[in-house]
């Protein structure tokens, strides 16, 4: 697959995945665009947790009577959804209806012979079929240490994903035009995807993630799956602009921005990223590498998972 350079569109705030619940606000349509709220992308606004709000192209939305009853999540980077029960007769490339990406929530109806029958948002009798190996039941997610290990393994699965401002997904082919649609993840999109692939919804952006997390003031108490944050200096209050996930030892996984040498999801050491080893870190310490303030936090309450 060919990587394509691009210019950041600062107007793109986020990205909705296929079958993701979206509210369309009445009376906001203009030139084919409409104001929406994304309840699966929490955001902190004026001190309150609310659905992420942004404009979307109305043609990308399908009206539904009610939101899906999600019970499956896609676990492979890209999975094919077929338009008929072709596993009974043999599947052909032409049977592929669409592709869905890791962390996409789906509504499964029944499964047999290695396939899930899923509900599609194109009418009451619209269904698709996806391989069992491509999804996992939301009710059967790992807990405790196993969950932390699973988060680390998922992060490694996503290595090399391209950085894309406002992105929350992998590269996906345009099945009708045989082209590659350029997409990827930004820093919080990566972390959110890792967690969402195990049924956990995090705030959409890095600063709300920081506000939601539990402070862990002792760096030696950090556990895999905990988050590191960067906040620029010179502001009257702390405002986080970058998030990374700790994967144990001296390593982090992050989606790096285009100004970095390695423009992709990557693993870096604490010393490479901050100029310090784990034992040298202090809450609010200024990184030797870029001068930003370093913080960290925990999204999982291990006693409750």
TrEMBL record:
Residues 145-288 form the NlpC/P60 domain. It comes from the Eukaryota. Gene3D superfamilies: endopeptidase domain like (from Nostoc punctiforme). One of its GO terms (molecular function) is cysteine-type peptidase activity. GO terms for biological process: proteolysis. Keywords: Hydrolase, Protease, Thiol protease. This is NlpC/P60 domain containing protein. It comes from Acanthamoeba castellanii (strain ATCC 30010 / Neff). The lineage of its organism: Eukaryota, Amoebozoa, Discosea, Longamoebia, Centramoebida.
